[in-house]
Amino acid sequence: MNNPDLKQQVDSRRTFAIISHPDAGKTTITEQLLLFGGAIRQAGTVKGKKTGNFAKSDWMDIEKQRGISVTSSVMQFDFDDKRVNILDTPGHEDFSEDTYRTLMAVDSAVMVIDSAKGIEAQTKKLFQVVKRRGIPIFTFINKLDRDGREPLELLEELEELLDIESYPMNWPIGMGKGLEGLYDIDNERIEFYRPEQYEGERFVKLTNGEIAGDHPLKEKSIYEDVLGEVELVREAGDQFDLEKIERGDQTPVFFGSALTNFGVETFLERFVDLAPKPHAHKTETGEAVSPYEEEFSGFVFKIQANMNPNHRDRIAFVRICSGTFERGMDVMLGRTGKKMKLSNVTQFMADARENVEEAVAGDIIGVYDTGNYQIGDTLYEGKLKVAYEELPSFTPELFMKVTAKNVMKQKSFHKGIYQLVQEGAIQLYKTYLTDEYIIGAVGQLQFEVFQHRMLNEYNAEVVMTPMGNKIARWIDPEQLDERMSSSRNILAKDRFDQPLFLFENQFAMRWFADKYPEVELKSLM
Ligand code: G4P
């Protein structure tokens, strides 16, 4: 497909996901970003809702817009000549393998951290998935308007727990009630939190790292303290290194408060500048396809099944890797060799009125699916004939024993289970000797979706018995000795008949490792 502006359009794309622990402020910051991008008109801050700052009709309007924007899986807006795609990574009870797979479709990630809590469990898990991909990670330390931990301590924790270098782009001047502003190392200026206290000026330029002449901030002791801290990190900390950032070995750190919209714009401006444009994607053969390749290609990274029993339709989310998508185009589905017409497709436009019918490499499209697509499928146009690398499997942490409720319906039970496993909705294991079915997931919701879809799509009612959290570790079949199985682990095999142990807890795993030091315990991604 001929698109003369393809390179320019691709280069303007910034496709990323926000990773964080529930309550760190992902929704709040997303909303602020959408606001800056003009994708919504008014910030529906939770505070606003609680104190009734907005008239009711206003609020409903915002909710309606948020319904489309914030709760949907992909949000798109334009900012500074860039087209930004934010991919949602559901947290809380929605957390699932889809959350991890979404991270396979982005070019960078933004990690939001609560300044009082530091690195929390879910952030760490998501971070590790991103880190393995070697893509840039930007950090936003949130909630400066509340008393939190010392910035130096937070940076130390980042480096220790996540094993990544950090570079502070700015530095908080106070926190909580004493928050004065940000010492913006990157832009050589100070950004005031309450400009009205400083004659209305939001920024003041720095000369040789200091405010020139008299200024009321200089009379406060915090000013000298911050100068000292900034000097310390300049001298003892890591130097800004773009190459390291691009490899995901250094994270630029921004401070701010999403709720009061402080520091968010400063972050966004720099982020769209530093974040990478779409890169070449690797195929199964190890070669990479350039995003500027004219023919369209992409891969399915997520399938969202409709939970409404009256609708069996699903949406397959496709990350475009090359070329231009046009509504109604014909593409090949590599796995089946079938020709597919991409007519019923959702695009995630900032402004529906534009009614743009095109999307390019870096963008995400949602393809209406009646059961043709699987996670990891490649779609391509014309002669391109590519197959993108298989998406990784993720080590499940939650397990259930599963049986068919009605023994007469074994056939549909097996068909359903195998199809859902193939599709990537759930992982399947069997106990090693007795062949009982065990299903594994990274989040509880996957079990609920599984149960629901088994009933509605395959007419198979399932009985699930929780086994709780387990640590799954694979071993070399050659090293397997059935006597290694004990009351603190379950010996199982995966769907490729590879043996693994499901350990009760870390203690049980360590005990095993001590007892059988020659046996290597391997996890998936
Ligand atoms: P999430 O999507 O990461 O789960 O977080 P979300 O944005 O929903 O924010 C979680 C809570 O933290 C919200 O409070 C939100 O208003 C608050 N919050 C987000 N950013 C900031 C910030 O910069 N400063 C302060 N002080 N609060 C912030 P909430 O819904 O009222 O719930 P609650 O948890 O306070 O009860």
Automatic annotation (TrEMBL):
Please tell me whether the keyword GTP-binding is annotated for this protein. Answer: yes
* Annotated TM spans: none
Compartmental location = Cytoplasm
A cellular component term from Gene Ontology for this protein is: cytosol
A single GO molecular-function term is: translation release factor activity, codon specific
- What coarse category fits the chief subcellular location reported for this protein? cytoplasm
Q: What does this protein do?
A: Increases the formation of ribosomal termination complexes and stimulates activities of RF-1 and RF-2. It binds guanine nucleotides and has strong preference for UGA stop codons. It may interact directly with the ribosome. The stimulation of RF-1 and RF-2 is significantly reduced by GTP and GDP, but not by GMP.
Protein name, UniProt field: Peptide chain release factor 3
Highest classification ranks of the organism: Bacteria, Bacillati, Bacillota, Bacilli, Lactobacillales
Q: Which gene encodes it?
A: prfC
